[in-house]
Amino acid sequence: MWLELDGVTRRFGERKVVDGLSLGLPRGSIGCLLGPSGCGKTTALRCIAGFEPVDAGVIRAHERVLSTSQMHTPPENREIGMVFQDYALFPHLTVIENVAFGLHKRTRAARIRRAEEILATVGLTEYRSHHPHQLSGGQQQRVALARALAPEPTIVLLDEPFSSLDIELRERLGDEVRGLLKSQNTTALLVTHDQQEAFAVADIVGVMRAGRLEQWDSPYQLYHRPRTRFVADFIGQGVFIAGEVVAPLTYQTELGVLRACCANGHGELTAGAKVDLLLRPDDVVHDDASALRARVCQRAFRGAAFLYTLRLDSGTQVLSLVPSHHDHAVGEYIGIRIEPDHVVAFMPGEN
Ligand SMILES: Nc1ncnc2c1ncn2[C@@H]1O[C@H](COP(=O)(O)OP(=O)(O)OP(=O)(O)O)[C@@H](O)[C@H]1O
C-alpha cells in the first residue's frame, strides 16, 4: 500500500477524535474519508499531513514510517502535498509565484519550468500573472491544486476541496479534479461530508462515524452492500422493512418472500429469526402488471426519474425510483415489484 494507516488514534483530552483508524490506499488511487461534521475526518487528514501527532498506531507512506506515538516526521519532510479548505493562497503573490512557492529546492529556472508545466496542466497558463483575488473560486482551487502537485509529492491530501464553491461548479470540478489527479497518477486522499462529491472523485471511500471507520470500500459496495446501518443511512436513500428468516438469505416480508444478496451481523439464522431488510429506491420497481399495489404519498421530480414515496396498506413506506414518463399523482395506486438482487439484511439491534 502506498498510504497505510494502522490503528491510528488521536486524542484531545479524554476524547478519541480519531479512534483506531486503519486503511490502505494503493498507489495512483484516490481515497476519500466521508462522514458527518465532527466525526474526525479533518483530524485524520492532519495526522497524515503531520500537523497533528498520533497517540497510537502507525502511519506509513511510500514505505516510510511517518508517525507513531514515539516518532513524528515533520510535515515538510513527508513529501505530502496538501490542498486546504480555503486554498490558503498567498494574496500578494501572482499565480505562477504561488505555484512555484514550494519548489525552493530547485534552481530558479527549474522552478519556473515546473510551475509553467503544472499551470498548463490545470489550464491556467493565461492567468499566470494574475493575483488570487482576480480569479474565480474554481480557478483559485485549481491554483491550490497546482501548488500542491508542483513539487511532485508522493501523496496529495485535499480537505473539503469543493466546500467554498457553488453546487453547479462542484459537480464539474469533481470530474475535473479527478481527471487531473489521474493524469498525474497521483495518490490522493480527500475528506468531505458530501456523498456526491466522494462518489464523483474517489475510487475508494471510507465512511467515518465518531472517529471510527465503519467501511472502506468502493462506492458501489457502499451503496449496494453497506456493512452497517449507519453506512446504509448515510449513503443514499432507502428504508428498512421487517422480515423473518425462512431459509438462508431468504425472508418472508409483507412484500412477499425476498432473497437478500448479503446479511450483516451475527444473529441466529434460524427460521423465524427477525431481520430488517434495506430497500433502496432502485430495488422497488414500478410494474403495472404487479398485483402488489402501493399508494403514492409523495413525489419528487428528478428530471429523468421521479422519486416516489409509496405507502402499502399496512402503513409501511417504501421509496421507488421510476422513469419520469410514468407520471402518477399523489393518492394514486401503482403496481410495484421488488428487484431482489440488492436487498441487504441486518439483524435487529445491530448498528
Ligand atoms: N485541536 C483540537 N483540540 C480539541 N478538540 C479538537 C481539536 N481539533 C478538533 N477537535 C474536535 O475534534 C472533533 C473532530 O474534528 P474534525 O475537524 O476532525 O472533524 P470533521 O469530521 O473534519 O468535521 P468538519 O466536517 O466539521 O470539519 C470535533 O469535535 C472538534 O471540535
TrEMBL record:
Q: Which domain of life is it from?
A: Bacteria
**GO BP annotation list:** quaternary ammonium group transport
Which cellular component, as a GO term, is one annotated location? ATP-binding cassette (ABC) transporter complex
Task: Indicate yes or no for the key word Nucleotide-binding.
Answer: yes
Q: Which EC numbers does the record give? A: 3.6.3.30
- Which PROSITE patterns does the record cross-reference, listed alphabetically? ABC_TRANSPORTER_1, ABC_TRANSPORTER_2
- A GO molecular-function annotation: ABC-type ferric iron transporter activity
In what residue span(s) does the ABC transporter domain sit? 3-235
**Which keywords describe this protein according to UniProt?**
ATP-binding, Cell membrane, Hydrolase, Ion transport, Iron, Iron transport, Membrane, Nucleotide-binding, Transport
Family annotation (SMART domains): AAA
Q: Which named protein is this?
A: Iron(III) transport system ATP-binding protein
The species is Steroidobacter denitrificans
